Amino acid sequence: MSNRFFLSDSEASDSGEDTLPYPKPLSRAAFLTPDFDPPTYLSSLRNRHQTLDDLRNELRTRSQEISKELLDLVNENYQDFLSLGSSLQGGDEKVEEVRLGLLGFKRDVEGLKSIVDEQRAEFAALVAQKKEIRRQMQTGRALLEIDQRLQNLEQSLMLISNGSHEKNNLTEDDRDSSDSGEEGDEDYEGRHLISRLKRHVEQYLLAQKTMKRVGLDHPFIVNQNSRIAKIKDTMLLDLGNALKQAAGQDHEQMTKILMMYGDLGGSQEALKLLKEGR
Q1: In whole angstroms, what is the distance from residue 174 CA to residue 196 CA?
Q2: What global pTM score does this model have?
């Protein structure tokens, strides 16, 4: 029960007292704000001329009014709530239609997925086939290079006929040798021989490097083993003759020849020749 009391203007003037600023009722809108905070709201009421008991009673009355309004609202809509179930009749058919539609959509997606998977597998197979063709082309070029180098070595080592080109080269070498004079013939021939032997060894090593890249077990390379052995034996024979000529005379040429022996893996054979020549 509120302790507030109100005096009319005549009563207040008769009693000789001033008119007090009595508080207005609490606004409902203040409770409806989204960021409503009870402590903040209560602190904003500190200027109200009202006792704490009066404020508590007013808030309690307001809560009771709101509860009553809520109960009335529920009672008014209760019948509608009960009739909600009957108004939803026939919804099973709609749900079934949606379910069937989703199943159809799922089948379509799975069908598209299988098509994409097949195309992905086909694309991967084509890429692998392209890589294999490229690898085979590179191998073919390497085999042609090996055959050409071996053929050049055979021609240069006089293992096969070199035709008119070889004859022309010999003629030019002989001409250059004759023009250099008798005094420089031996020195020129030595340098020319070392240069020719070095060129043979370099060509042989390049061929070996290419063969290792292709694979020494490749059928083509296996079939060339006898050909390669013959070329190597001929080069070692030429190196042996050059080493015998340079032994004890030209140490620089001997060093170069021994290095070429080492490149061909014939160091032991070179040492044996040197021991025999002593």
Answers
A1: 15
A2: 0.50
Q: Give the angle 31-34-38 at the CA atoms, nearest 5°.
A: 45
Question: Could you tell me how many helices (H) and strands (E) the chain has, helices first?
Answer: 11, 0
Q: Which residues contact 116 (CB under 8 A, 6 or more apart)?
A: none
Residues of the chain with pLDDT under 50: 1-16, 164-183
Say how far apart CA 261 and CA 268 lie, in whole Å: 9
Distance CA 236, CA 224 (A): 18
pLDDT of residue 74: 81
In this prediction, residue 163 carries a pLDDT of: 52
Name the nearest CA neighbour of 261 among 236, 230, 242, 237: 236
* Other C-beta atoms lying within 10 Å of the C-beta of residue 67: 10
Q: How far apart are the first and last CA of the chain?
A: 141
Residue 39, sorted as left (phi over 0), alpha (psi -120 to 50) or beta, turns out to be alpha
Query: pLDDT tens-digit profile of 205-248?
Result: 999 999 999 999 999 999 999 999 999 999 999 888 888 887 76
Q: Which residue has the tokens 């890429």?
A: 127
What pLDDT, on a 0 to 100 scale, did the predictor assign at position 183? 43
